[in-house]
């Protein structure tokens, strides 16, 4: 396959709330929507699949475990001015897991989508 799109699946509790969150706050555009089971949104070459409890991705595993949102694996979105983005998103009521952290490669912060899935905003050093 030569598809240059990056595909990431997030399990969400509420597909419509996830669509609204990603399109309102993080610059994604809707692609395919089948609430309450499934939707996908696009930002550049990232296709984020939003799978609700009624989707095939939300079905219990053979051993009885049920997939659920959350964890620490996350999508990583580059921003030009992390302080301005954080201020804008906080004013819009977005929940962050921490304050901005600085490291040798740049500055980052992790926020939660409505289902508790993490999203990292990252401003590279020197940007």
Automatic annotation (TrEMBL):
Keyword Metal-binding in record: yes
Organism domain of life: Bacteria
Keywords, in A-Z order: Metal-binding
Cited PROSITE patterns: GLYOXALASE_I_1, VOC
Keyword field contains ATP-binding: no
Record-annotated VOC domain positions: 4-124
Name of the protein in question: VOC family protein
Lineage: Bacteria, Bacillati, Actinomycetota, Actinomycetes, Micromonosporales
């Amino acid at each position: 396959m030569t598809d240059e799109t990056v595909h990431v699946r997030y399990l969400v509790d509420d597909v419509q709330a996830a669509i609204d969150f990603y399109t309102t706050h993080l610059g994604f555009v809707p692609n395919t929507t089948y609430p309450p089971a499934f939707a996908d949104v696009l930002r550049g070459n990232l296709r984020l699949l939003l799978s609700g409890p009624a989707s095939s991705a939300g079905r219990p595993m053979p051993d009885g475990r049920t997939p659920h949102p959350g964890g620490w694996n996350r999508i990583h979105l580059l921003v030009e001015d992390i302080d301005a983005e954080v201020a804008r998103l906080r004013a819009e009521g977005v929940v962050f897991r921490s304050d901005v952290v600085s490291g040798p490669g740049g500055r980052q912060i992790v926020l939660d989508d409505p289902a508790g899935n993490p999203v990292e905003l990252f401003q590279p050093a020197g940007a």
